[in-house]
């Protein structure tokens, strides 16, 4: 999508620190990390959020979770949290589906 920040990152128009990439999924470091490890995992197809997941596109979500497991192993994360914000009130600022992978400090003080 033309005006989507993460589509521009996928296209290489905006640089990112890539952690993993294949035909379907990109994982890269968050520009404003909220934990020592803060990686974003995104499908290469534009889906606005979890609320837009359908039977037709849900394979992209499964592929994201395969990559989350792969990245957690390569980053040697023994414990980590996966978060996806849906909608502005939940804190979503980029409307291209993404999963935050957070680790490296105690996360108990946060919501779940
Ligand atoms: P959200 O707030 O939508 O759940 O998460 C969006 C995330 O994207 C934020 O954690 C923010 O720091 C990150 N972000 C925003 N712009 C960029 C960018 O240009 N590059 C990278 N690597 N991360 C970004
Ligand atoms: Zn997009």
What's this model, at a glance?
The protein is α+β, with helices and mostly antiparallel strands and 112 residues long.
Topology diagram in text:
Elements: H1 5-11, E1 18-21, E2 25-29, E3 37-43, H2 58-74, E4 81-83, E5 99-103
Antiparallel strand pairs: 1-2, 2-3, 3-5, 4-5
Bound molecules: guanosine-5'-monophosphate and zinc ion.
Guanosine-5'-monophosphate binds at residues 5, 14, 16, 28-32, 40, 85, 91-94.
Structural account:
The protein is of the alpha+beta class and 112 residues long. The chain is 21% helix and 21% strand. The protein contains two helices and five strands, in the order αβββαββ. A five-stranded antiparallel beta sheet has the order 1-2-3-5-4, covered by helices on one side. The longest helix has 17 residues. The chain is globular and about 35 Å long. Guanosine-5'-monophosphate binds next to strand 2.
Note the main sheet.
5 strands, antiparallel
Number of helices: 2
- Ligands bound, unique: guanosine-5'-monophosphate, zinc ion
* Radius of gyration, whole Å: 13 Å
Query: What value does the average pLDDT take?
Result: 96
Termini separation? 32 Å
Q: What is the global morphology?
A: globular
Helix content: 10-25%
Number of E-type strands: 5
SSE order, one letter for each helix or strand:
HEEEHEE
The proportion of strand residues reads 15-25%
